[in-house]
Design a protein that fits this description.
This protein has about 240 residues and is mostly helical. The protein is about 85% helix and about 0% strand. It holds the Pfam family TauE.
Length: about 240
Amino acid sequence: MDGLLLIAVLAAVVIAFTVSASAGFGGSLILVPALALVLGTKSGTALAALLLAANNIVKVWAYRKTIPWRRAALITIIIAVGTALGALLFVAAPEKLVTIAVIVTFIVAFVAERFDLSGLRRRFGAPLLALLSGATSGFSGTSGPLKGLAVRSLDLDRLHLVGALSVASLVGDATKTAIWTEAALIPASAYLLALAAVPLMFAATLSGRRLNSRLGERGFTGLFWLVMTGYTARLAIGL
């Protein structure tokens, strides 16, 4: 990787990790397409999974005091199972079909939130959203809006929501990284790049956490749905 390309990758890393630390998720919205553009789809997506997994370790440390371990446990486990299935089995699935399903799910969930149907969604929707989140993440490198919707169903305040999203993201990205490393999609040099990016991870995570604390609940809700809309717009453009 030449110098200019390395700078571009590290710039994408900083932006992605700042967004991720402030909203709890969203790093893959920036990082996956950026790395896929410069490195190719498979290599870029695999490297993004590795970088996101490493960054989520830092996020878990940063939000360690506001992680609802018990409440997030079931959704996190389901996301991990879905991610493994997606990474192993969803390669042959029609990508357009998966994309359409994710967009429809997002619209339904947005309407449910708008009309305060959160109780119904929480009772019946969270496990399914978590499973689909993991599956689409394993298939495409990003879970899109589904992970955010699944964890949001836990009705947590913004700090605990980010904590729960950080744990779920760590488990999902670590699962993908392990499977794709075994499949030789992640070369050894990628781990050196991830190690070099550690200082950026700490700086971006601390900046994102500071931004989160200044937003307030209303501002955070706006940021959350902005990231969700960005995910959906990216999916729609790919159709």
